[in-house]
Amino acid sequence: MKRRLLLFSVLSAFLLLAACGQERSASLSSPKQSASTDSWPKELHVGFQKSSFSLFLKEKGYLEKQLQKHGVQVKWFEFQSGPPLLEALNAGQIDIGYVGGAPAVLAQANPDSQLVYLAYEPEVARAIIVPKTSSIHTVADLKGKKVAFGKGSSAHYTLLTALETAGLTLNDITPVYLQPSEARTAFERGDVDAWVIWDPFLADAEVNGGARILIDAKGLPKQYGFIVGRNEYVKQYANVAQTVIAQLNKVHQEIHSSPDEAAKLLAKETKIGEEIWKRTLSRRGYGVFPLTKEVIDAQQRIADRFYEAGLISKRVKAKDAVVVIKEQ
């Protein structure tokens, strides 16, 4: 017997556990792609960043426990930010991962894109920071200054939209493209005037790096985090995608209910202080949610702004990368 299911219809129990207080808009209609849930692969390659809760999932081993009964071996691959993770996804080196909204747009604009959106997470704290002693006190003061950020990362969009609040564009600053670890060094040495970054690196810079927040992302256009998959893999092995989403949501709820214990584990694995992680966990939302029109509309705004800014060469439609599961 054949029947069609939306990706999350089989996860009703999981959705009941999702973090309370999150606003939901109507579910997306007319999804463009479908996937089968009738088989299991030999391996699952997961891309993760140490700044994401995927690290906690990795250390807890929940995914391995669920998938080993189906003969699936889980392999983990670490990346410093979203763009290199998505390069690996488009190249077929990983199957599932977590990224911010901006790098997902860039990956979708790739002619050989394999990216599909599976679920979303609430925003994490992001901001433009400057040294506490800096003479820069407004966004307008960034004109002509050196600003460090990851090219194509969520910080890239944060900077773009922040500059717009002061009537500036990326052409008005000197971009310095650096990954978080390199940017931290450049920031502390004074090689750059400002740095655009996300938690926990943001919290660490505030507490230990002599940083002051110039502007945070709270008043800027929303940029959600996404669980993304490789199209060919997800269409063939939807059961795996469902398992990843359910276990990642379990991790979110565990961290939310016991943040101090989570901070200890994350501090051990990242070498970022326990107090920094407590600060990070206290100012973010929790839960892994089905994609909604509101979320995809926010993603479309990123795509439109990147096209207008010349960061991507063609227009993309975010909704075209939304997946539907088909069970046979």
Automatic annotation (TrEMBL):
<dbReference type="GO" id="GO:0016020">
    <property type="term" value="C:membrane"/>
</dbReference>
<dbReference type="InterPro" id="IPR010067">
    <property type="entry name" value="ABC_SsuA_sub-bd"/>
</dbReference>
<comment type="function">
    <text>Part of a binding-protein-dependent transport system for aliphatic sulfonates. Putative binding protein.</text>
</comment>
<keyword id="KW-0813">Transport</keyword>
<dbReference type="InterPro" id="IPR001638">
    <property type="entry name" value="Solute-binding_3/MltF_N"/>
</dbReference>
<comment type="similarity">
    <text>Belongs to the bacterial solute-binding protein SsuA/TauA family.</text>
</comment>
<feature type="signal peptide">
    <location>
        <begin position="1"/>
        <end position="18"/>
    </location>
</feature>
<feature type="domain" description="Solute-binding protein family 3/N-terminal">
    <location>
        <begin position="43"/>
        <end position="259"/>
    </location>
</feature>
<keyword id="KW-0732">Signal</keyword>
<dbReference type="Pfam" id="PF12974">
    <property type="entry name" value="Phosphonate-bd"/>
</dbReference>
<dbReference type="GO" id="GO:0042626">
    <property type="term" value="F:ATPase-coupled transmembrane transporter activity"/>
</dbReference>
<protein>
    <recommendedName>
        <fullName>Putative aliphatic sulfonates-binding protein</fullName>
    </recommendedName>
</protein>
